[in-house]
Write a structure and sequence with these properties.
The chain is an alpha/beta fold and 402 residues long. It has helices at 8-25, 30-37, 41-53, 117-135, 174-182, 191-202, 255-258, 260-265, 267-276, 285-290, 296-320, 329-332, 335-348, 364-381, 397-401; strands spanning 28-29, 57-64, 70-76, 82-88, 92-99, 104-111, 142-149, 185-190, 211-216, 220-226, 229-231, 324-328, 354-357. It folds into three domains: 8-76, Orthogonal Bundle (Arc Repressor Mutant, subunit A), CATH 1.10.10.10; 80-196 and 363-401, Nucleotidyltransferase, domain 5 (2-Layer Sandwich), CATH 3.30.420.40; 204-358, Nucleotidyltransferase, domain 5. A hairpin with a 5-residue loop joins β2 and β3 (70-76). α6 (191-202) crosses α14 (364-381) and α11 (296-320) packs across α13.
């Protein structure tokens, strides 16, 4: 075992290693931490005493050793702090309060305010106060939050560059306003990126390090994981596949606002295609899927959308070489659409990439926001820099039991 120098940086590194092991195993002895981290028993004891004294760790039980001795096991206290996960959409606002194990203790959904960015911030603050009261959590125990938002999020400033469905949001420093009003550290992330994080943490890609999450609904977007890391790009626009030159003419000026691919396969484009094939005016995407077995216009529409999406997946896979591609969103998660994508992929790929539907459904962004908020709190509390790599997030209770 190696002794770690007692410098502040070395101490932070030791704490990080211990916290990572506690997050991974939920309940573990000092000897097991020492074996798994390479730290000396003395260093482990010092770190554990510090974490226990400050209320982050508690004794969790005992295990029987190989020579008959029992050892005390330790676990992170889930209620040592709480985080806020926020899923901001053009029509609904979903806010959840969770502990450091990722267990939601209170949540609420409301229609998104139509009165602009400041009104949305005020709405989030009001919902946060109500959740704290509902769960009986003191305000000082809330230590961080992450909000998922549609549009592009600048990776440096955290500002929302494009938010077409929420008026006034892109003209406001939303992160600064939330920090001031909530009194906690807040990070804003693209909603599809957070959905990818949610799937990686507790969804369809838990055991996969390289994958893409494609969300198809009113809009289309993609979150990318490469070798265990979320890919954001130089300007936070990695995965903005709405502008792929597929499904239409990329030089048609009508595609400048939403993108060529999104114009073709977003909900408005699907309905327009269906009506153009002789379908009923006033129909919704749900109506079209419900008429698949009885109406030719509906069948042709979904077939064509499946073919266009398959072309997009082929382009994505040619660049990323993902282990799997997860498809979600209100439209993307339809099994009828997946069947068509699987069929078309078999016709254009020698070894088709595996397509899986989102395991978290409409909660993927919220779960990703909670996981990211836990990561944010651990980094700020234990002095872990972003260059230290991804921090292991806690498993769900059922995974630990298994």
């Amino acid at each position: 075992m190696q002794d770690v120098p007692s410098s502040p940086i070395a101490r932070q590194q030791s704490v990080r290693l211990v916290v990572q092991r506690l997050l991974r195993d939920r309940s573990v002895s000092r000897a097991e931490i020492a074996r798994g981290t390479g730290l000396s028993k003395q260093t482990i004891s010092e770190v554990m005493r510090e974490l226990e004294r400050e209320g982050w760790v508690h004794e969790d039980g005992q295990i029987q050793g190989s020579v008959g001795r029992s050892a005390v096991t330790y676990a992170l206290r889930g209620d040592a702090a709480f985080v806020l996960g926020i899923d901001l959409g053009g029509t609904k606002l979903h806010v959840a309060l969770a502990d450091l194990h990722g267990e939601i203790v209170a949540e609420s959904i409301e229609p998104t305010s139509n009165d602009g960015g400041h009104a949305v911030v005020a709405q989030i603050v009001r919902m946060k106060d109500a959740l704290l009261q509902q769960a009986g959590v003191p305000a000082q125990r809330l230590r961080g939050g992450v909000m998922g938002s549609p549009g592009m999020v600048d990776p440096v400033s955290g500002s929302i560059v494009i938010a077409p469905n929420i008026p006034g949001l892109d003209s406001l420093d939303v992160r600064a306003a939330l920090r001031e009003q909530l009194g906690i550290e807040v990070v804003i992330e693209n909603d599809v990126n957070l959905a990818a994080i949610g799937e990686h943490w507790r969804g369809s890609s838990r055991k996969v390090r390289s994958f893409a999450f494609i969300a198809v609904g009113t809009c289309i977007g993609m979150g990318i994981f490469s070798d265990g890391y979320l890919v954001r790009g130089a300007r936070g626009a990695a995965g903005e596949i709405a502008y792929l030159p597929l499904g239409g003419d990329p030089y048609d000026a009508r595609g400048l606002r939403l993108g060529t691919l999104e114009t073709a396969v977003g909900s408005a484009g699907i309905v327009e295609r269906y009506v153009g094939l002789g379908g009923s005016l006033g129909s919704t995407v749900r109506d079209i899927f419900e008429r698949l077995d009885t109406e030719e216009a509906a069948r042709i529409t979904v077939d064509e959308i499946g073919r266009i999406l398959t072309s997009a997946i082929l382009a994505v896979q040619s660049v990323l070489d993902s282990e799997i591609i997860i498809v979600g969103g209100s439209i993307g998660a339809r099994p009828e659409l997946k069947r068509r994508i699987d069929e078309y992929l078999g016709r254009c790929m020698r070894q088709p990439v595996r397509i899986e539907l989102s395991a978290l459904g409409s909660r993927a962004t919220l779960i990703g926001a909670i996981g990211s908020a836990i990561d944010l709190v651990h980094r700020s509390l234990f002095g872990i820099g972003r260059d230290a790599g991804p921090l292991t997030l806690p498993f769900a209770a059922e995974e630990v039991a298994a």
